[in-house]
Predict the structure.
Amino acid sequence: MSAVAAPSARRIAWIRRQRALSRAWGQFRHHTPGMIGLGILVAAVAMALAAPLLADEAGLRAINATDNPTFANPSEFGPLGTDSLGRDVMTQFVWGARTSLLVGLAATFLAMLIGSVVGIVAGFYGGKLGGFLMRITEWFLVIPFLPLAIVLAAILGPSVKNIILVIGITSWPSTARLIRAQVLTLRERDYVDRSRALGGSNWHLMTRHILPNVSPLIVANTTLTVPVVILSEALLSFLGLGDPTNPSWGKMLDDAFETGAVTAEAWWVFVPPGLGILLVALAFTLCGTALEEILDPRLRDKNE
Amino acid sequence: MSARFIGGKVLGSLATLLFVVCFNFFLFRVVETDPVANLYRGHNLTQTQRAKLTEEFGLDKSTGAQFTSYLKQTATLNLGRSYTTNQPVWDEIKDKAGPTIALVGVSAVLSAVFGIMLGVVAAWRRRTKADYSITGFTMATYSMPEFWLGMILLTVFAVALGWFPVGGIEDPSSTATGLAKLPDQAQHMFLPALTLTLAYLGEYAIVMRSSLLETMREDYLVLARAKGLRDVLVRNRHAVPNALLPVVALMAINFGLVLSGAIAIEAIFSWPGLGLATYEALKGPDLPMLQGMFLVFSAAVIFFNLIADLLYGYLDPRVRPS
């Protein structure tokens, strides 16, 4: 590529996107609540990734904890004490972060994938296909989430994969509706008409022109969906639908309640996992609100 | 509000309910392999007894025939028998609906009232310490698992301090009847109701705050101030009633949410309602009970969503089709 040749269209788009990204980051950096949320998230993700270094996974199995005292408080054992079976609470907390974050992110990803595809296709094509997709979306919106999730999880059986599936396929409709509304305005823009006139296929229009323009919306919506998903996972686990071999923070709360930690006043067994859920959910909400303020075109247009 | 608007919404809700009823049938067909064996667990059935029961339940018929008889039975509130108690599921539901309606009703009203009050204060004193602490508090309660809050309140106020009973709806040794039971029941209800109230007031506060902030930019508020009205009057007579609009719809929708949230809370405080029954049915699993609970919870949520739609249409003329 010689120095005089004009950069390709793809390169121009790439540079433009990089600039938009660094502009967004510049704004985000000055958003105090957003940065606090990001800080908590970085810490939580680091802990989840470093779990094998921080605590031995064998400590999750009761068979390896027979020598430990049961319901030992933090001053008697380790930093966080032990549970009803003598298992170290710290080990469970560190490994629980992994499962909770994994389920939170994976189920959100699934919900966003379904929601974005349905939203973009319904908005872009409109007509009979769009109407049909929106009817399905409305069905899912009106079926109450929790009873459906409980019943599905009870039927599929407790495992990490099933929890992700159940939450993912019950959490997408509001995203689909949001994206569709945005796509409906985008598809009337001049640049979409121009690209169509130049012979762009529907696939090209959707992936090159519609998707990049709804992606800020998807990003902000994703961040705001994660806390809801993490709380749903906790509730489903508490109701006994969590994976017993990969305990999440919600499953820890279920175990604590089932084994009488409340009557034993063993607060160290259930305060840490609940606090973990609270902090991570709060952090995602803080980041999501900040991103929404920075990225949402409707909020941005109001300021400019 | 036109009859057409109401009729459309009611029909839509009925269609959804019908969809849930059909869905329910096929959903549980996936897991239910042998209802006869499940229902007569521990009984030694002979081959002829088995065949007789299978015929009696209509399990020898085609799926289509089973489906029509399921629809007929559901319409007449025959929801089958619980595996654990062997009582008709509908009777179980009727017995347990009272405590749940009381708990959820009280919590739904209290969370709305306190949430709205906090939201008004936060918006009216925006960017002050009061606003920051209210927003922080509501964000925190909104982000915590409500059953975790219940566990903490139970540990502190019932187990450690002993101020409240650890569970149930009334003192089993009490001899009081009728209205004399109320103080005891109120004491039992305090902690679960407090948990649900705290868990759900956050959303009201957040919505009320942003709605009121929006309203405060309106011209008629400037006019009210220009007329020389006192701050309190501007707030209570002009700003708040208009800002309440989105919150009213939220109330109806949230009623269904609080109902779902009550499943875990009733389990923690052994409150003998539908939530505790669902929790126990899940442990079984007691499939006929779960099926019945799914229908009841779904019907309740659909009903309150309908109320929300109608209320919103009544209060905000812009929603109605002209």
